[in-house]
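Researcher: Please translate sequence to structure tokens.
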Amino acid sequence: MTIDRREFIIIGATVAAGTALSAVTPALSHTVAGNQSPLDVPPSAASGKNQWGMVIDIAKCTADCTACTDACRKENNVPLFGDPKRDIHWIRKLTIRQKGVPNATERYLPAMCFHCEHPPCAHVCPVAATFRRKDGIVLVDKHRCIGCRYCMVACPYKARSFVSQHVEAGPDANPNAPIRMHGVVEKCDFCVHRIDAGKEPACVEACRQAGNGAMVFGNFGDPDGEISRIVATGEAEQLRADLGTNPRVFYTHL
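Model: Translation complete:
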């Protein structure tokens, strides 16, 4: 049988994970919580003084608006393959309604990676490819990822996608977009390249300019900041707060 290096690594990690994961996770906890992954991802300007997050008012989010999803795909070169089982989504528009209530009003909810304070995806990764920066942004080191997809199973929000086929960058592709690699897992990264440049995520900018201004991005490390003040009112909620992951994306008018 002939296998390549990636297949060998996947097989080895899958076999070993069941017995080694409990020992590996504590050993990696300090590195994962730091400013870079164990594979020497170039250090950023991330600081613990900033704790990035978002508040979304779904009362302002309409069924026909695709400003956030369109901006995300353009900014990050996120492809659609035309197959629902393989399409990649960094942000999705979900339709929700109150269960058991006849003729309940439908609401529309943008959902992405919630950049949890206690991310289950990072805890189960056997190679620490998923890590959390000091500023709270959860990232995937695609050079380290072996495509085992444990993180996809662990994520309670279904916020991750597996890149099942090669993606060619088009002529209009954003040169600053994240690296696109085949055989790895990827997800929303809050447009970290924009944040490190002093900007806000593309979805938030597009929502304000072409949508209804439902999305607000900011720093939870600033108690006087807009998102901190909104959450302090008690009107903003986390999805599945009972899981204890402490997601950094909140919603009002759920």
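Researcher: Any highlights?
Model: Helices lie at 5-32, 67-76, 120-124, 150-154, 192-195, 202-210, 226-232.
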